[in-house]
Design brief:
Layout (H helix, E strand, L loop, with lengths): L1 H36 L8 E2 L1 H8 L3 H13 L3 E4 L3 E4 L4 H25 L2 H19 L3 H18 L3 H24 L3 H16 L3 H25 L20
Antiparallel strand pairs: 1-3, 2-3
């Protein structure tokens, strides 16, 4: 009986330890993901585990768990012997993002016309007005965040949770590109004109027009991104110099 109680306590202790590690890993994951999306860590940059462990004040296990999750989401790549790196930007990858984006955002706009409540539509219009003001004031970072939130709000109004999660994940990746692109040239005004047209169609509950406008918006956004990225090829492959040793020493 005593041995059984001891074993039970050990099991509970191990379980609590695993839960604690998982909680820490989730916290590191969220913070590191935000830093990657916000370009605190730029494409191609080496994410040194020891530095991350020190920064987030955790052990190596939560850091590795967080990095593995980010790798699964396509934000980080692992190079055996060298560690984890923020994924480089590649033209073919950008094209793929926008192809998938079209498949998601057209039905999202159409479903929002059907399922959004009157209160949600009012809030959506106020939100778009707020985005107008941020762009007019040339507030760079708020405009980027609100621009991404625009698409997520439409997905939320679609009342399709899976679609909503996919749209959020996809637009997080695109927001990285937006931060690079809009630092170079300002295309926010044109994008916002397209946003307002989509909003008006959704408010009128015109699903067919909303879907058409959403498709055109994704197409135009893709063209704008591709033209600018092709003109700035140095941004597409920020490849770091790999260390000679596995301990991260530079040659």
């Amino acid at each position: 009986m005593v041995e059984s109680m001891v074993d039970t306590k050990r099991i509970h202790k191990r379980t609590r330890a695993k839960e604690s590690q998982a909680t820490l890993a989730q916290d590191v994951y969220l913070k590191l993901k935000d830093q990657i999306i916000s370009l605190v860590f730029v494409p191609g940059q080496n994410l040194l585990e020891e530095n991350l462990r020190t920064e987030f004040e955790v052990s190596r296990t939560p850091v590795r768990m967080a990095l593995c999750k980010l790798e699964q989401e396509g934000l980080v790549s692992h190079r055996p012997g060298y560690g984890y790196f923020v994924r480089d930007i590649r033209l073919h990858h950008v094209q793929s993002l926008f192809q998938v984006r079209e498949f998601l955002e057209v039905p999202a706009a159409q479903l929002a016309c059907q399922h959004a409540s009157s209160e949600e539509l009012k809030e959506f219009q106020l939100f778009v007005n707020g985005l107008d003001q941020a762009i007019h004031r040339r507030e760079f970072e708020p405009s980027i965040k609100l621009g991404i939130e625009f698409h997520h709000r439409i997905a939320v109004m679609s009342k399709n949770e899976i679609l909503c999660d996919l749209v959020r994940s996809l637009n997080e990746k695109i927001s990285m590109l937006a931060r690079i692109i809009f630092q170079l040239e300002n295309h926010m005004e044109q994008s916002q004109t397209e946003h307002r047209a989509i909003m008006k169609s959704i408010i009128k509950r015109d699903a067919e027009k909303a879907g058409t406008l959403a498709k055109e918006h994704v197409s135009q956004s893709s063209k704008r991104f591709m033209v600018l990225l092709q003109s700035k090829m140095d941004l597409l492959s920020v490849t770091p110099v790999l260390p000679l040793s596995r301990k991260g020493r530079q040659p």
